[in-house]
Amino acid sequence: MIYRETGHFVTNYLKDREIFPLKFDKIIVILGLLFLYLYMPTTSEYMLSAHVIPILAVGLATVGLNILTGLTGQLSLGTAGFMCVGAFGTYNLMLRMPENLMSLPVALLLSGIFAGLVGVIFGLPAIRIKGFYLLVSTLAAQYFVWWFFNSYAWFLNYESSGVVAIAPHMYDYWGLGNLLGVDMQGYPARYLLALTICIGLTYFAKNLLRSNTGRNFMSVRDRDIAASVMGISVPRTKLLAFFVSCFYCGIAGGIYSFLYIGNVDLMIYEIDRSFTILFMLIIGGLGSISGSWLGAIFVYEFPILFTWVGDTIFQGAFNTAVVENVSNMVYGVFIIALLIREPGGFAALWATTKQKLRMWPYPH
Amino acid sequence: MDWVYLIEVLVGGLMSGVMYSLVAIGFVLIYKSSGIFNFAQGTMLLFASLTFVKMTENGIDFWTALFIAAGIMVIFGIATERYVIRPLANQDLLALFMATVGLATFQEGFSQFIWDSDVHGLQMSKFLDIGLLDPAPIFVSDHIPWLDILIPKFDIFASLVAGSLIVILAFFFQKTRTGLSLRAVSDDHMAAMAVGIPLQTVWAIVWAVTGIIALIAGLLWAERVSVSFTLIEAVMKALPVILIGGLTSIPGAIVGGLVIGVGEKLGEIYLADVFGGQGIELWFAYFMALIFLVFRPQGMFGEKLIERV
């Protein structure tokens, strides 16, 4: 009934390459976009600031990690470090460049490129080192970047507290605030910028996965020697994967600091965050872009949901330590259970559901 | 350069290297026997030492607590093999690694959930009447007049424990029948199975032994720092150690630990000024391992893999 291919005829090559070939999918996507662009900004500020924007930021980072770990098979524990580069890069570009030259979207893009280059530097050992041995390189990136921004106060504009608030004028890009009469620092405006970046980059990632480059990534993941025999330059592919992945993480870091919390704080880019994003990736499913978003939503929302359950049903019986510990236990069990039962993660569950829907109501 | 000071630094580095090696040995045991990169090693340390400390705080005496904690770790190890590793047999290494990441997360939450997330101090000298557990350091100049350095007694104790652990492990591996089957499994799973070695039993034994090693390492680390969340960071420090040493070699874990320990201390003293800041020990070990691996990608004693398509 739903998701049926009946009546779907491919008449040219362009149609054959569509991301959403089915009419049903197209309707869902259009409705989803309308929902995200028209309805979401009108919901409460709390909804945007505490749920949607952070999910957009960490989800984008998960997509970035997915390109490196899920597609190319290079294990990384340095995600938070690369996010940190993006956040500090955005801040310093906004702070130090002339105001009429730099605007927030451009600064995010540039710091993404910068984070990508940092990623390439720490990806260089990947040419020689393989598998688990590569963990040391990404860990070096994580700790070194953190230490670097911690030691050189210039990057924080000599702010002794280690946290620097973002000036309100930094949010107003291209004079849009005056032009449209919108508070650009308000959450709806921040949300729309984050959403546009995330949708654009997700679309790009999805297409990357279907392109020659994406197939090169996957062939390096599956068997690098076979890939090199087939004429794929393994070092070039790996470095490209590092660049693209860290580009995503950098922009995610910028979004996290600028559009979500509103200040640049080193403490949120510690190694714990790298792990959280790795959980999102594993639970969502390696190699699947939509899975990354599902995983991000689950891992981000679970502690909030659990706290809410504790507050409403058990009259606030769970303190933060309990919530954190139980969340960790649940993530752990989910990761192990998914790996055993459904190694594709949420993305595979979704694919199964889709298949079931296609057959519904006559499953044979 | 003050060379007596240099010797003191070297000795200090060697001692902290021993602590890293203790964590690294557990890693290597599991990797060698089943090819699993066990990320849960750090949380096993936390779980074991937290269980032990909570028991002693509740009035159970040292040896009973040690015995019970060891028993819990053995049960935990066997359960891990049964419910996590066995269903995942023949999966690719990345999936197994991720399963241990999941295990680590679970264990982190679990141990702090059933016990608590406070920082506990552990003073073994309260329970054991061993001169070496005395907090006062040894003045080497009392024995060798020209060598004016200090060595904390506890470091010597830790080194002795680590040394005897290695001797016991070496004996276990080389002389016992179980050790023989362990070596056979680590050499070739398929061949070992073909000659009738029960693979699952062997893995359960490895996880149990690793649990006990985690307990010992956890207690020593706890005495040095404290029983708290920071123990998990021990695993992060052990990573460059095992990678330098080579993932499959116990001697590699020892030498790697010593190299990292000494290198870190030397780097802190002679290179911190170059980088214009404190705290380079945060990343220095990783860079050392990185530079080392670029020249020798399989680590010091690791097996060089010949790859074919």
Query: Mean pLDDT score of chain B, rounded?
Result: 83
SSE-based structural type of chain A: mainly alpha
- What is the tally of beta strands of chain A? 2
Largest interface: A-B, 49 and 50 residues
Shape of chain B: globular
The radius of gyration of chain A is 21 Å
- Number of separate helices of chain A: 15
Q: If helices are DSSP runs of H or I spanning 4 or more residues, what is the number of helices of chain B?
A: 11
Give the C-alpha Rg of chain B: 20 Å
Main pleated sheet of chain B:
2 strands, antiparallel
Q: What this model shows, in words?
A:
The complex is a heterodimer of chains A (364) and B (309). Chain A is mainly α. Chain A has a domain at 47-270. Helix content of chain A is 69%, strand content 2%. Chain A has helices at 13-16, 23-39, 45-71, 79-96, 104-123, 135-151, 176-180, 187-210, 212-222, 224-229, 234-261, 271-284, 289-312, 320-341, 345-359, and strands at 163-165, 263-265. A two-stranded antiparallel sheet of chain A has the order 1-2. The two termini of chain A are 13 Å apart. The relative contact order of chain A is 0.16. The mean pLDDT of chain A is 89. By secondary structure, chain B is mostly helical. Chain B has one domain. A two-stranded antiparallel ribbon of chain B has the order 1-2. In chain B, helix 5 packs across helix 6. Chain B is globular and about 60 Å long. The N and C termini of chain B lie far apart (54 Å). The model of chain B has no long low-confidence stretch (mean pLDDT 83). At the A-B interface, helix 6, helix 10, helix 12 and helix 14 of A face helix 4, helix 9 and helix 11 of B.
Short description:
Chain A is mainly α.
Spell out the key features of this protein.
heterodimer, A: 364 residues, mainly alpha, two-stranded antiparallel sheet, B: 309 residues, 11 helices
